[in-house]
Amino acid sequence: MGTVKKRSNCLLSSSLDIFGDKWSLLIIRDLMFNNKNTYNDFLKSAEGIATNILASRLKGLEENGLIEKSEHPGSRAKILYRLTPKGIELLPVIIEIHLWAEKYFTIPSGIEPTLKEAKKDREALIKSITKSLMENISL
User: Fold this and answer.
1) Over the range 27-53, which residues count as b (16 or more CB within 10 Å of their CB) and which as e?
2) Percentage of the chain with pLDDT > 90?
3) For residue 95, which of 137, 61, 127 has the smallest C-alpha distance?
4) Which CATH fold would you assign to the domain 11-137?
5) Full-model pTM
6) How crowded is residue 56: how many other Cβ atoms within 10 Å of its Cβ?
7) Are 88 and 82 in contact (CB under 8 A)?
């Protein structure tokens, strides 16, 4: 993936160059909602990402400033990944994708309360989740 080389000046195209592949938003989702923050955590996701693809996507997301890595406090052998403020700013995009998908796919029961909250007051939900994610950055 690497640092983005823009294909055009289109903002959508430039953004998709960073997070528009099959895996990057799933990694961001896992960091935001599923309390996953290590390489092995991501490997255990239901979608079954290959190790070489995972390594490539993590590197690209880091190079583009969406995630950062640090030493894991519990193990010197592990690396801890977390979202940066730039990565956290994708939250509204992910919520909108979920709301769109709700119209066309069967929704897992675990996400129904969040979707209901988003429909009721999207801005309040985004503000609340963003605050929680930002607190994790400053730990």
Assistant:
1) bbbbbbbeebbbbebbeebeeebeeee
2) 70
3) 127
4) Arc Repressor Mutant, subunit A (1.10.10)
5) 0.88
6) 16
7) no
pLDDT at 23: 95
> What amino acid occupies position 49?
I
Residue (of 82, 87, 92, 88) closest to 65 by Cα position: 87
3-state secondary structure of 16: helix
Return the structure tokens found at 136.
């994790």
- Distance between CA 84 and CA 69 in Å, rounded? 10
In one letter, which amino acid is 104? Y
Question: Residues 98-138: pLDDT tens digits?
Answer: 999 999 999 888 889 999 999 999 999 999 999 999 998 76
Do 84 and 137 form a contact (C-beta atoms < 8 A)?
yes
What's residue 19's pLDDT?
Answer: 86
Angle subtended by helix axes 51-63 and 11-19, to nearest 10: 130
The two tokens of residue 108 are 């897992």
Domain limits of the chain? 11-137
